[in-house]
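FIELD: query
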Amino acid sequence: MSAQQVYKSNALIEASYRLSVYEQRIILGCIAQVRRDEPLTDQQLYTVSAQQIAKDAGVSVDRAYQHLKTASERLFRREVTLHEAPNGTGGAKVRLTRWVQEVVYQKDQGTIALRFSQPMVPYLSQLTEQFTRYALTDVARMDSAHAIRLYELLCQWRDVGQREVSVEWLREAFQLGDKYPAIKDLKRRVIKPAVEQINKLSPLWVKWDQRKTGRRVTHLMFTFGENTDSKKPKKSAANKCRKTDASSIPAPGGHAMFGIPPDIINRYKKPGDSWQDAALRALEARRQEKH
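FIELD: result
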């Protein structure tokens, strides 16, 4: 039996949100059940159990059971900010929505059932382009929510083998708020633990470095590949992550980000900027225009 696959629109991969490890496990366990041959509706109910999470994560059933109820209660209130439309369609809109419209906790059975919110449906189903796929088992044993998020961001650029992000963009995507304002704390509490878990628990190896603008660290650079002895990507593997969006490769002209077209981003790009820098600058300009 092949491993369960997680399919997400790239717009959802790059969205801004914060979920705990168990909230991630619940969401991903449900996403992995979405049928590829049937349309998803917001009426579909998906169920995950403490027993299954314990088995996948390598923890005791009692521990999984204790976390499920708390996670389910928080999950209902969790928000996600989407900056782009799925499949590269639609206009440039920033959408604030919730992951789920209903959560049902069944204490006697040790299960949680949920229905995704209607706005989330097109980001999870009938994806024809600009989506990322990886096996649920790739992240099942990670106990860092940041590691899961970083793994997805790397999988999105799987065909490239490297990705550079601005520190500002990463902080917004991970919804860190006022946490770890000093770069040394961000590296120690977020980046290093996430990279260690990806190297230890996933099919990828990853190395990282930093880039400065002046004297300040402004960008993080990740290099990665399939975790084999030779550190060369496997040509075929059931659980390897897969990026299916050629437009996200940082070729000349770039790609849409935060719902902003490449030609607009180019207008705001300055020497030394990454694509994310220019996109953030364009996004801020748009916000100021609205006010």
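FIELD: remark
Residues 210 and 249 are 20 Å apart (CA to CA).
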